[in-house]
Amino acid sequence: MISDKTWDIIYLLYIIREGGERTKEGAIEGAVRLQKLVFLAREEKIPFTYSFDSYYFGPYSEELAKDLGFLKDLGFLEVIEETGISATGRIIPKRSYRITEAGLGFLSKFKIPKDSSEKIVNLLDEYLPLPVAKIVEEALKRWPIPTT
Question: How many other C-beta atoms are found inside a 10 Å radius of the C-beta of residue 3?
Answer without folding.
Answer: 9
